[in-house]
Amino acid sequence: YTWPDTAYDVVEEFFWKDRNDFLDVPPLCDFFPLDQQSTSAGWLRTAYHDVATADVAAGTGGLDGSIFYETGRPENIGSSVSESVSQFASFYGRYISYADVVAAGAAVAVKNCGGPNIPFRTGRITALEAGPSGVPLPTDSLKSQTAAFARQGFTAKEMIGLVACGHTMGGVDNEDFPDINPNVGVASFDHTVYFDNNIATTYFNGTTIDPLISGPATSASDARIFASDGNVTMRSFAHSQDTFFSTCASLLERMINTVPKEVKLSEPVVAIPFKPRDYQLSLLPDGTINLGVTVDVFGPNVISTSRVVTMHWNDRESDRCASGQCSALPITGESNSGLAKRNGNELQAYTFSVNATTKASFSSFWFTVDEDGTGRAVTTERNGGGNYPVDDLLLVVPEFTCQGYLGGNTNITGRITVAIRSSVTPSSVTLESTSNGEGQPIPQIFSGPAEMITGNATSPMLSPSDDYVYYSGLVPGPLNAAGCSTQMEYSATIDRKVHQGQILYSGCTSRASTRLPQSFCEFCGPFPCATT
Ligand code: HEM
């Protein structure tokens, strides 16, 4: 991995580092009493229901997000599916598909309830419409259920495993299946809210409360499935939590990786233990350049009050700062220990903000990490050797960049103003916004040009520095009422090379960049700038 890699960075931060609070959506697993539905159980069930209509022989269906269009079907009855489907809709975007969010949801749900790690790959393509139906029902015969799992790519034995791995969480809601659970509320599958082998131990020791075992015979589907190999699989689970975990990790990974044949999944998304995020290079009103960046230190037990992280940088001439005069300490820090409860990791963040003249500017930065503040254990983070690069041909001008719309014109997402080094002439400058699709969980990308602002002495949009020229434009695209998933991006083509600016997130996501001003943008047009 070499920074920056926008597509990877977005996904890595989403899945591991709680960007946009995805990991915080399901409450801690034991937040709900046993007889209430848990969000985690709903996420796991929803992922299965998306996959359950797969036809692996034909290479169609599987985890393609088609569940989004299928919540009205009797086979998807229940708020656990409909609520999960709409929760997932807040998290997809240009770099992560809705189908990928559903898959991530299953992995996060299992982990949140103490289960095994399920590797998460990306690259799923979201369906444009509903697929065929075919989720197995509790009243189906064993033969038809076995056939359904075979269509999904699982043997009869794997079916036993997959059902037990699912039915260790949550239960049967009286509202959805009053014949199976006649009592108000949710009848749990086992005695714990956690992802554990309690579903199997209670199956053998006579204390099972699984309504798909102890309920009416016609719908005793778990009883039929669990016993279908002479209880061999269930006995191995009851005997060993490790066997249960390793079998479930492998089956659930295969489940979320069941995708249409044209989809090529990525390698598993792994956490980068030290990584910059929310990097932004800006031209300030006083004519200086600001480099703002946060670095995340991530892993088990990383929260430390004695660690000292220092940022160092080189200027445009590259080596003038190499002797170390150009260095700074963080302006703020932030830690997230909530992550530890969910995935065994912690995150400690350090935010830097440093200014330089346009003449000196920046060409790269790196960090030294003094682990206990004593100077005895200092390591250097250099992005694998080449430093973290700075491209100072293209800066953003926060003063004249904002999200919002011109009064009455909801076809404008905002304004972006960029500053381009006067020594170069771009052939084009492009502004983009990504919004949620209407009625479809597909991101829509809109783009438009930015014009050079020649300005005059009376124009407030005049570049404060001779080294930079302003380009500015209104960003097209319907301003999504939800706003949170609206992203703005910009790029400039200079000598046939595309220089990419940073993603400017809207301000309503807590770990997203908040460097985009919401309220100081006269050139956005009349307010309100819709930001939430
Ligand atoms: C023959 C196959 C299956 C049948 C007949 C079946 C049936 C059911 C039924 C009737 C419910 C209650 C839903 C409600 O109250 O609205 C349920 C819940 C659930 N199922 Fe399955 N299921 C099957 C396979 C699976 C698989 C393979 C998984 C995941 C790997 C899974 C995960 C879940 C979860 C987590 C819940 C709890 C949902 C909650 O409490 O919100 N199921 N299942």
Question: Helices and strands in order, then pairings?
Answer:
Elements: H1 6-16, H2 39-51, H3 79-88, H4 98-112, H5 142-152, H6 156-166, E1 171-173, E2 186-188, H7 198-204, H8 211-214, H9 221-226, H10 232-239, H11 241-256, E3 274-283, E4 288-299, E5 308-314, E6 327-328, E7 332-336, H12 338-343, E8 346-357, E9 364-370, E10 378-381, E11 388-389, E12 394-396, E13 402-403, E14 412-421, E15 428-435, E16 444-449, E17 451-453, E18 468-476, E19 487-494, E20 497-500, E21 504-505
Antiparallel strand pairs: 1-2, 3-4, 4-8, 5-6, 5-9, 7-8, 9-10, 9-11, 12-14, 13-14, 14-18, 15-16, 15-19, 17-18, 19-20, 19-21
Helix pairs in contact: 2-3, 2-4, 6-11, 7-10, 10-11
> What's the β-strand tally?
21
Number of helices: 12
Q: Quick one: overall form? A: elongated
CATH topology of the largest domain: Peroxidase, domain 1
Intertermini distance: 33 Å
Whole-number mean pLDDT: 90
CATH class of the largest domain: Mainly Alpha
Rounded radius of gyration (Å): 26 Å
What structural class do the secondary elements suggest? Answer: alpha+beta
Low-confidence stretches: 507-514, 517-532
Helix content: 10-25%
| Main sheet properties | 5 strands, antiparallel
- Please give the CATH architecture of the largest domain: Orthogonal Bundle
Oligomer: single chain
Question: What is the domain tally?
Answer: 3
Keywords: Heme, Iron, Metal-binding, Oxidoreductase, Peroxidase, Signal
Protein name: Peroxidase
Enzyme class: oxidoreductase
Function: Destroys radicals which are normally produced within the cells and which are toxic to biological systems.
